[in-house]
Write a sequence for this structure.
């Protein structure tokens, strides 16, 4: 999985490409922890390039959600593909996460 972290309008954007599974979720966990440790409190996770997510990937997202709430931060997700959206729906994640169709909408939700 490829992870690119950037900042836009004071909001941290973590863009993911590839598979989010047991072999790659540690990299995702390290990326968001680094962001929070460096003071980021508003984070958008762009899942546009994620082609597959496993239960390990869901655990990584749940860990980020909990850490973000503990830090009194804002968290949004965007560009969720059909397969990932279906996994979110089946697992009940759609009721826990703020999911937006595009990056601009996700950023606006945290502005």
């Amino acid at each position: 999985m490829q992870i690119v972290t950037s900042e836009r309008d004071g909001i941290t954007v973590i863009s993911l490409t590839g598979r989010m599974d047991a072999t790659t979720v540690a990299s995702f966990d390290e990326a968001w922890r680094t962001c929070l440790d460096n003071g980021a409190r508003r984070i958008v996770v762009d899942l546009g390039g994620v082609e597959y997510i496993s239960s390990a990937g869901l655990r990584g997202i749940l860990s980020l959600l909990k850490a973000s709430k503990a830090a009194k931060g804002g968290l949004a997700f965007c560009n969720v593909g059909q397969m990932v959206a279906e996994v979110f729906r089946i697992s009940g994640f759609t009721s826990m996460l703020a999911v937006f169709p595009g990056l601009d909408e996700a950023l606006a939700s945290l502005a």
Summary: Residues 55-70 form the longest helix (16 residues). DSSP finds four helices and five strands in the chain.
